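Hi R.,

Here's the chain you asked about this morning:
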Amino acid sequence: MTPETKARIDRLVSENKVMVFMKGSKLMPQCGFSNNVVQILNTLGVPYETIDILADPEIRQGIKEYSNWPTIPQIYIDGEFVGGSDIAIELYQSGELQQMVEVALAS
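And here is the predicted structure, written out as C-alpha cells:
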C-alpha cells in the first residue's frame, strides 16, 4: 500500500465516527454482506459513511492491508476496526453494536 493510500484511509477512518468500506454504496449495496451491514446500521438509525471499494482499486487492496482483514465489508467505529458482516450481525444481535455506536457518537 502506498503512503498516499494509507493517509487517505487514515483520514476516512478518523473523520467519520462510523465508516464502512463496502462493495457499492449505502443506497445501492453490491453484495449481500455489504447489504447486511447497511441494513443493520439503517435499523440502528445512526449516521455513517461508506466508500465503494469497487470504484477504487487502491482502497480495495489497501483496506485489506490496513486492517489485516481479508474480506469486505469492513466497519470502523470511532477509528477502530470492528469487523465485517458476520461480526456486525453478532454485535447487533447482542446489543453491543448499538452501545459501541452510541459511545462513539457521544465522544
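One quick note: The domain at 3-102 is CATH 3.40.30.10 (Glutaredoxin).

Cheers,
M.
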